[in-house]
């Protein structure tokens, strides 16, 4: 079979096309081969170039690293050298210090040895002296025994009588020395303390000057006309009885024109009644039902006013963190008086006085201010709570977790318990200063006279007192003693004993000065 027989049936154009395609394909394959070969050579050249550049860069990095390592090594070596030199210098300093200590220890050892020698020598001397003293004591004892025998023979006294005489003489001598010592100590104390105390107290009073106001147990209510009195009394007195029953006060309607009087010892009830009466007069509807409504409304207003007054007092004194129950009791003190002195104003004054004195003494003024404000909180309690107001106030404050310092200040400001902190004496002093201000408190004439008589009675009860006079409203007592029976040293002790007895037996605001006078008059006549 030949080619023609195979492609005999195929047209010539088709054969030409097939041949052309075969040739083109071959040419493409050959061209692709040569192109890939050229690209491979080019890529190989680029790779070689990159490798050379990378090699050069690596060499540069290695050189830089070697230089850096070299410089770091040099730096570390220098630091090591410096550290070594520093350690060596420190070791040298320590060696020098140890050498000095060894020298000092050696000197101390030498001194100790010398001291031991001196002590041994002193002990030997003391032993010799003790022997001599024992010998002399023995001799003195023998001499005293001989003198006793001679004394008994001369005086015809036995041992008990002689002992009693000797003890009497020793007692007189000791009393004289004791009186002299008391006088000396009092003078020293007055020289060092009185001036400083006066400075602190005067500074405190000058820095806080408060007005004093006295209140009474009645309140007056103005009425528009006298016809209103009949409406207040009501038919057969039912209105006034209902008012007195609802408020717990006494209403006094007399012939005084334009005013009625409300009387009650409880200031809260009195204030509630006064407000209620003013509202009833303004309203005009006065009957038992309306009276009960007005009184209930006024009572709420008074309670709110009491709390507000307590808060204002706390703000004025700058005392924070007080419970509302405590603030209510403080507000209640605004309506209470002590010897005519408003208790709340007294507490505020004590707070500021105590703060000033605490600041002058280097103590915490805020603690003194808080204790001063709360020191009379027990006076806000009614008669249902038994006990003195210091103990009542302390127990009340314990329920609200007040500090032990504040509680002791409240409990000890009248000396009922011992003060355990420096603030309690300050509160007691500030309380006395506030109560002793001129016009701060008032007394009835009967009580005033009794207090003066008691002062003179106490002073007259001592031996040697000839006359005594209470002066300056009972704040000073002048005592005149017999100069022949009492000497100067004993006079000092008598004055102190009188003051102590006044402290123990009397209750008074402030302090009482005891001035004792001793005068010896010698009269002779030349004839």
UniProtKB/TrEMBL annotation:
<comment type="function">
    <text>Endoribonuclease that initiates mRNA decay.</text>
</comment>
<dbReference type="Pfam" id="PF01966">
    <property type="entry name" value="HD"/>
</dbReference>
<dbReference type="GO" id="GO:0003723">
    <property type="term" value="F:RNA binding"/>
</dbReference>
<dbReference type="InterPro" id="IPR017705">
    <property type="entry name" value="Ribonuclease_Y"/>
</dbReference>
<dbReference type="InterPro" id="IPR004088">
    <property type="entry name" value="KH_dom_type_1"/>
</dbReference>
<keyword id="KW-1133">Transmembrane helix</keyword>
<dbReference type="Pfam" id="PF12072">
    <property type="entry name" value="RNase_Y_N"/>
</dbReference>
<keyword id="KW-0378">Hydrolase</keyword>
<dbReference type="InterPro" id="IPR006674">
    <property type="entry name" value="HD_domain"/>
</dbReference>
<keyword id="KW-0472">Membrane</keyword>
<feature type="transmembrane region" description="Helical">
    <location>
        <begin position="12"/>
        <end position="35"/>
    </location>
</feature>
<dbReference type="InterPro" id="IPR004087">
    <property type="entry name" value="KH_dom"/>
</dbReference>
<keyword id="KW-0255">Endonuclease</keyword>
<dbReference type="GO" id="GO:0004521">
    <property type="term" value="F:RNA endonuclease activity"/>
</dbReference>
<protein>
    <recommendedName>
        <fullName>Ribonuclease Y</fullName>
        <ecNumber>3.1.-.-</ecNumber>
    </recommendedName>
</protein>
<dbReference type="Pfam" id="PF00013">
    <property type="entry name" value="KH_1"/>
</dbReference>
<dbReference type="InterPro" id="IPR036612">
    <property type="entry name" value="KH_dom_type_1_sf"/>
</dbReference>
<keyword id="KW-0540">Nuclease</keyword>
<feature type="coiled-coil region">
    <location>
        <begin position="70"/>
        <end position="125"/>
    </location>
</feature>
<dbReference type="GO" id="GO:0016787">
    <property type="term" value="F:hydrolase activity"/>
</dbReference>
<feature type="domain" description="HD">
    <location>
        <begin position="343"/>
        <end position="436"/>
    </location>
</feature>
<dbReference type="InterPro" id="IPR006675">
    <property type="entry name" value="HDIG_dom"/>
</dbReference>
<dbReference type="GO" id="GO:0005886">
    <property type="term" value="C:plasma membrane"/>
</dbReference>
<dbReference type="InterPro" id="IPR003607">
    <property type="entry name" value="HD/PDEase_dom"/>
</dbReference>
<keyword id="KW-0812">Transmembrane</keyword>
<dbReference type="GO" id="GO:0006402">
    <property type="term" value="P:mRNA catabolic process"/>
</dbReference>
<dbReference type="InterPro" id="IPR022711">
    <property type="entry name" value="RNase_Y_N"/>
</dbReference>
<keyword id="KW-1003">Cell membrane</keyword>
<comment type="similarity">
    <text>Belongs to the RNase Y family.</text>
</comment>
<keyword id="KW-0694">RNA-binding</keyword>
<keyword id="KW-0175">Coiled coil</keyword>
